[in-house]
Specification:
216 residues, mainly beta, nine-stranded antiparallel sheet, 2 helices, 5% helix, 40% strand
């Protein structure tokens, strides 16, 4: 991961592009075969199938003792490198998802609202909506960084600064959750998942070089 303050996430993870369709928004999925990523599959993240894709999410350590996160800011960072062989418009969003959605099971209606379509429904909050930007027959990078803060008294996930997104070094428009804060009842509901929308074609390579939660 990026530094000694990183507390969770994934590094150099190749997106399983066979699970994605041009024009549809889908979250970050687990691989479809073993040996693709060192720590996957795992008891928490089984392998994806076309019928039952598995969402990969980043979350802070469950140990909240000592107020490590309670009332202290943290950063969500997402870095990507990609290659395209045709016109490919790329859009990246970020969501907060409750533990109840993630533990509801691969085939349940609740989980399907996260994995089978554009994420929406009870327990799913869009934090960041990106802007589709063209990446024509070339390679490039995307990076998003934003700070958040949560505390056990107010039970609010606050957006602590204006998140920034760059594609190939150029700033692109990013829309934050309009209220600047999301009600999050429990520490275990601090689960973060990016989504990707590709149009008109899928990229040929799309690697999550870093998706991390960092203490700040």
């Amino acid at each position: 991961m990026a530094n000694q303050n990183t507390v969770g996430g994934f590094e150099n993870y190749p997106l399983p592009l066979s699970l994605y369709t041009a024009g549809s928004e889908n979250v970050l999925f687990a691989p479809t075969a073993s040996g693709v990523y060192t720590s996957l599959p795992s008891p928490l993240f089984p392998l994806s199938t076309s019928a039952n894709p598995v969402a990969l999410y980043a979350a802070p350590s469950p140990d909240i003792s000592g107020s490590v996160y309670d009332g202290h800011p943290f950063e969500i960072k997402l870095a990507i490198k990609f290659t395209t062989t045709g016109t490919c418009s790329i859009k990246v969003n970020l969501y907060q998802v409750t533990n109840a959605v993630l533990t509801s099971g691969l085939t349940s209606t609740t989980y399907a609202t996260l994995t089978q379509a554009s994420p929406s429904g009870t327990g799913i909050n869009e934090l960041i909506a990106g802007t589709s930007t063209a990446a024509n027959t070339t390679s490039g990078t995307i990076i998003y960084s934003g700070q958040y803060i949560w505390d056990s008294v107010g039970k609010i996930l606050g957006i602590a600064n204006v998140g920034t997104t760059f594609q190939k070094g150029v700033s692109i428009t990013t829309t934050q959750q309009s209220s600047g804060a999301v009600t999050v009842s429990n520490f275990t509901d601090l689960n973060f998942i990016p989504s990707f929308t590709f149009a008109t074609n899928l990229p040929s390579v799309f690697t999550i070089t870093e998706f991390s939660i960092n203490r700040v």
